[in-house]
């Protein structure tokens, strides 16, 4: 673990450099390989008649930006949830928040024929909030949230909402392709016009995280300590939970179900930078975005010219890590 601020700053700069490298690879690699010279040419002198320039502007750029926003958001929301629940296995995917957002979004699209991006986003927020409330109710007890019960409740809620969404495949065959997109998880097929309405939510949630970083450090220790130091615990938890819902809901609305990123990244960053949220949260944003971009690039190349949904790639990475954490820690009801 790096303990000095100088070391942590240097590590974040390394993370930023890796993110830049992943972004360049995301722009260049795929079914059509594009040279670095072509990329530089497109930035300096865009030519709409050039096929490679069009691919960069219409497909690769939006795909890269979506992976950046979604990867950072899922990783940060996972760190927030682990702090709020004091549970190492907490993440939007494990506790069903992503599944709730996905089901409400699919239901709005198929049952009510909603197509406006903002309406779908608000549907995803409602689903994420509903799932979070259900998990808290089912996972709570006389002594508060139980680590084992909250994980079991999250898995049950996630399975329930995913099953409901799959049921819509039978009810509404016309929307089959779009539903499969949300179930599999993908950062492709969405333009920058889809991302732009979501940017205010990503930015607002990010600003909330920055403002709450110090309070979250106290909250991670104990409610009693934070209260004794004059912190308004309920307000901090509400704001942090709202940030989680915005980050997870917006991510699902544009990329579907991408699991395990919110679980594994906070642990990796915490091992390097420590538990201080002033360093943990930006580290999670950098590493989460980098990992999702890298997973997306691999998903394009592994069985080219076909693509594997990026949600499958993150599951392949995250499932062994989840099993490792579950075996390493003992949970009691």
TrEMBL record:
Keywords: Cell membrane, Membrane, Transmembrane, Transmembrane helix, Transport. One of its GO terms (molecular function) is transmembrane transporter activity. It is a multi-pass membrane protein. It comes from the Bacteria. One of its GO terms (biological process) is siderophore-iron import into cell. It is found in: Cell membrane. One of its GO terms (cellular component) is plasma membrane. It holds the Pfam family FecCD. The chain crosses the membrane at residues 61-81, 93-112, 118-138, 150-171, 195-213, 234-267, 279-298, 310-327. Belongs to the binding-protein-dependent transport system permease family. FecCD subfamily. This is Iron complex transport system permease protein. It comes from Marinobacterium mangrovicola.
């Amino acid at each position: 673990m790096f303990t000095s601020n100088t070391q942590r700053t240097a590590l974040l700069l390394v993370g930023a450099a890796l993110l830049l490298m992943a972004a360049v690879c995301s722009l260049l690699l795929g079914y059509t390989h594009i040279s670095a010279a072509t990329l530089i040419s497109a930035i300096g002198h865009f030519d709409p008649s050039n096929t490679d320039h069009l691919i960069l502007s219409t497909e690769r750029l939006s795909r890269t930006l979506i992976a950046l926003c979604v990867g950072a958001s899922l990783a940060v929301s996972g760190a927030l949830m682990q702090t709020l629940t004091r549970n190492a296995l907490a993440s939007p995917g494990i506790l069903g928040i992503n599944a709730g957002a996905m089901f409400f979004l699919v239901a709005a699209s198929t049952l009510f024929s909603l197509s406006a991006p903002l309406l779908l986003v608000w549907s995803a927020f409602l689903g994420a909030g509903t799932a979070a409330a259900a998990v808290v109710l089912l996972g709570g007890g006389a002594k508060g949230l139980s680590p084992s019960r909250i994980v079991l409740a999250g898995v049950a809620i996630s399975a329930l909402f995913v099953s409901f969404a799959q049921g819509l495949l039978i009810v509404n065959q016309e929307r089959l392709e779009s539903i499969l997109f949300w179930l599999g998880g993908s950062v492709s097929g969405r333009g920058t016009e889809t991302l732009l309405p979501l940017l205010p939510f990503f930015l607002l949630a990010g600003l909330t995280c920055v403002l709450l970083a110090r309070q979250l450090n106290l909250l991670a220790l104990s409610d009693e300590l934070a209260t004794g130091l004059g912190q308004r615990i309920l307000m901090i938890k509400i704001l942090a939970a709202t940030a989680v819902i915005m980050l997870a809901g917006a991510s699902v609305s544009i990329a579907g179900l991408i699991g395990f990123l919110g679980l594994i990244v906070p642990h990796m960053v915490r091992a390097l930078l420590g538990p201080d949220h002033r360093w943990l949260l930006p580290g999670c944003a950098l590493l989460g975005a980098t990992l999702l971009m890298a997973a997306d690039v691999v998903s394009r190349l592994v069985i080219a010219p076909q693509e594997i949904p990026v949600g499958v790639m993150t599951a392949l990475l995250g499932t062994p890590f989840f099993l490792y954490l579950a075996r390493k820690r003992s949970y009691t009801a």
